[in-house]
Amino acid sequence: MNNVTNLDLKKLKQRLASDFDNGLSQVTAKNRLRKDGYNVIKQQKSISPIGLFIDQFKDAMVIVLIFATLISGLLGEYYDGITIIIIIILNAILGFVQEFKAEKSLQALAKMTSPKATVVREGKEIKIDSSELIVGDLVVLLSGDKVPADIRLVESQNLEIDESALTGESVPVIKNANKLVESSVVSDAVNCCFMGTSVTKGKAKGVVFATGMKSAMGQVAHMIDSEGNDATPLQNRLNQLGKVLVSLCLLVSFLVVLLGIYRGEDIYKMFLAGVSLAVAAIPEGLPAIVTICLALGVQRMLKRRAIVRKLPAVETLGCATVICSDKTGTLTQNKMTVEKIYVDGKYIDVTGEGYIPSGQFLYKNSLIKNFSKISSLKTLLEIGAICNNSKLLKRGMGSLKYDLSGDPTDGALNVCSQKAKITKEKILEEHNIYTELPFDSDRKMMSVILQKNNNLRSYTKGAPDIILSRCSKILSSGSQIMLTDEKKEEIEKAISRLASQGYRTLALSYKSSVVSSQQKHVESNMVFVGLAAIFDPPRPEVFSAVAKCKSAGIKTVMITGDHKATAVSIAKQLKILPPYGKVLTGSELNQYSFSQLMDVIDDVYVFARVSPEHKLKIVKALKQKGHTVAMTGDGVNDGPAIKAADIGIAMGITGTEVTKEAASLILSDDNFATIVEAVEEGRSIYDNIRKFIRFLLSCNVGEIMTMFLAMLMGLPLPLKPIQILWINLVTDGFPALALGVEKPEGEIMKRKPRRKNQSVFSDGLDFKIFSRGIMISIITLSLFIIGYRTSEGNLEVARTMAFVSLIVTQLVHVFDCRSERKSIFEMNIFSNIYLVIAVLFSTMLMLAVIYVGPLQAVFSTVPLSLEQWLMITGVVAFPYLIQFVVVIYRIVTKKAQLSYTE
Ligand code: ATP
Questions:
Q1: Over residues 121-147, mean pLDDT
Q2: Which stretches make up the Cation-transporting P-type ATPase N-terminal domain (predicted)?
Q3: Closest C-alpha residue for ligand 1 atom 5
Q4: Fewer CB atoms near the end CB (10 Å): N or C, the chain?
Q5: Residue 548: pLDDT band by 50, 70, 90 thresholds?
Q6: 233-300+689-901 has which CATH code?
Q7: Looking at the domain covering 9-44+107-226, what would its CATH class be?
C-alpha cells in the first residue's frame, strides 16, 4: 500500500505529487498515463484479424472438405481440387468479414459501457473513463459509485464501503479520512478505499495511490465479475440444434453415398458428393449470422439511445410482459420547479420558469415584498439553500439560460431560494459546514449540520410524511410552538392537497441545538417549517409509449419513492393507472406476505413510497406469476432488483455505477419511451432471426432432399459437389444476411409478447421449413428430369437446369421469408433494398457460372436456351401462381364479407 495510510495530508500530497484543491492538470495526467499505463486489471482481449481468419478453417466439416480436396489432387482431379479450395477461401473471407464486423461492434459496445469516475482536473469536476485514472488524481466518491482505483481519502462524510468484492466481507465498512493507521492490511486501512469495491453510503474525496495491476485488486489478481457478452439463450439453443442437424445431415449424406456406391457409382465421386452435401446442408453459418443480426440490432438500439450491456437482453426484451418503471426522470422530465410553498398555514405561489433564478412570491395573487411578514418563508428558503448540493451555471456571458449540475430536486430549491436572493454561499460566509448526512432513498431525507462558533444547528429536507413524523415543534410566524395533532392534521391535508395535484412535495425542517452528528439524533425532534411543491411535468413522448405497451400486451407499472397522491396523479395523466387499478404503498407492502402480494399483484399498477428493497419483492412476485419483467433503477440499492429482473435497466444520466454494472440495458436518456423502442427493436430482431432461419434451413432441406430423392429414384446425382458448395457457401449467404436487416413489420407492437421459453420454431415455422424445403426439392428434381429427358440424357444440361432452378427457387423463396403473416404478393419488394441488391448479386453470380466460358468448364455447366429458361420459369412460378390465386380469393371473399356486414 506504499505506506500511504499513515501520512498526513501534506506529506501525502508530496508523495503522490497531487493537488488537493484543483486536481492535476490535463497535461500532467496525459504524461503520467503514458508512463504508468491504463488503470485496468485485465487487458481487453483484442481480436486479431489473422486469428479470426484462421478460425474460419477450423470448422470440422471444412477440414473434411480440405481432406477430400487433397484426395482429389492425389487422384489427379486438379480442377475439382483447386475450385473447391477457391470456394472454401471465398467462404472463409465472407465468414471473416461478418464475424470481424460483429466482434468490432460488440467491443465498441463494451467500451461504451465501461465504468466512469468523477475526478477533479484543472479545478473542475469531470467524468472520465476509469481506465484513464492515474496516481495523484483527485477522485470524488458518491453513494452508488464503484471505487475506480486504490484511493487514500482526503475528506469523507459518513462514508461506507462494500468491500465484499475484495475481502468477501458482506457488511459495509465505515471509512474515515481523518484517521491515520500504521497497518497496511486492507481490512485495517479505514482511510483508504480500494478498486472494485463500491460506495454504499456517504460521500468523499480522495487521491489515487495505485492503479491497474498495482492496486490491491490487481495484486491478488482477483477478478471482478467478468460480465462479457455471453451467448444468448437462442444462440445456445441453436448451437444444440446445430449438433442434431449435423448428425442428421451426416446420416443422410452417408445414406446417399451408400446408395450411390450400391448403384455402381464411382467411390471417390460419391465420397466427394457425400462430403459436399454434408458441408452444404449443415447450417454452420447460422450461429454467425445470428450473432451478426444481434450485433446489428444492438447498434440500432444504440441509435435509439438504449445501450445493451448483456447480449441476452436483446432477445428477452421481446418477451417483456411487464415494464416496472421509476417515475422521476423516466416517466417525468426531471425538470423541476418549485411552484408552491406552504408555510404558516398559507399557500404561496412562486412564479418564474425553469432554472432561471428570477421570479416572484405571491400570496393570494399579491406580491410579497417584505419577507418579515411571513418570516417562516425566509427560514424555509434558507433551509432549501443549505440542504443543497446543486450548482446553477449561466450558459455564457449575457445568456438568459442556466444549466444545473447536481440533483434536480436540489436544483429546484436552489433556484427558488435564489429568487429571494438567498444563496448557500452567503449563508456560508458566517457558518461552516460541520457535516452532511447525504440523501438516500431509504431514509428519504438529507441533513446538513452548520457550525457557528461552538454551536451546531441542523437543517433537514425530505419526504414530508417522514419529516413530519420526526418533528415535535412547528415554526409559526417566527416562533417555535408545539406540533399538536390538530396542526399535524392540517399539514397532512396540505400534503395530500399538493400531492394530488401532481406536485412532488418536500418538507423542510431544522433543529436549533445539535449535540451529536448521529443521524438518529439529528433527524428527530425537529421543528417543522413548511412544504415546497415541485412541478415535474410528464415526458410528452411517454403518453404514446404507454399506449403502445398496452396494445403490445405489456403492462406498465410505476414504482416510485414519491408520495402516493403524486404518483396516482401522474399515473392517471399518463393512463398507466386504469379505473380498476390498485395502488400499493411501501408500508402496505411491508404488511403483505409474499403469497398475499402474488394474489393482488396483477391488479396493482402503482407502487408508491417504496424503498429499493421493495422492488426486489415486486420483481420476485411478478416473476413467480410467470411474467417476464423489465425493471428500471438508478440508486445504489436498486442493484439486487435489477439483477433479479429478466431485463435490468439502469439510467444512463442519473444512474449510479453500481446499478449500471448490474443492468443488462442502460438508457442513455433515462426515458421510458426508449425502453418501449428497445422492446420493439428486440421483437424485430427476433422476427428477423426467425426469417433467416426459415430461409437457410428450408434451402438446406431442399438440397439434401433433392439429392436423397434422386438416389432413391435411381437417378444420377442431380448436382455436382462443386455446384452444391457454390450455392450454399456463396449464393445463399448474402440474401440471408439481408433478411437480418428487415425493418420491423407494422403490427409488431400489436402482437402479444412471446413466451420466454418458446421454441424458435413455434407457430408453425418447422412446418414451413419442411414444406418449402420439399417444394424446392420437387421443383429442382422435376427440372433435372425434364432437362435430362429433353436433352436425351445429357447430364450437363440436366444438371445446369437443376443448378439454375435450385438457385432461382431459393431466390424467390427468400422474398417469401420476409414475413410470416403476409404473402409475397402483399409486400413492397423494394422496402428492403439490401435484399433486392443481394438477390441481384446472387443472380449475376449464377449467370456468370453458366455463361462465362472458363466458369462453365469449372462448374460443368452449359448455357441455357430460351426454351429451357421458359420451362424453368414455368415450374418455379407454378406454386406461386397457386399462392397468388389463394391471396386474390382471400381478398375477394373478405371484401364480400365486409359488404355483407355493412
Ligand atoms: P422515483 O423512485 O420514481 O425516481 P423519487 O425520486 O421520488 O421517485 P426517491 O429518490 O427515493 O424517489 O425519493 C423519495 C422521496 O424523497 C421523494 O418523494 C422526496 O420527497 C424525497 N427526496 C427526493 N430527493 C430528495 C433530495 N435530494 N433531498 C431530500 N429529499 C429528497
A1: 89
A2: 3-77
A3: 561
A4: C
A5: very high
A6: 1.20.1110.10
A7: mainly beta
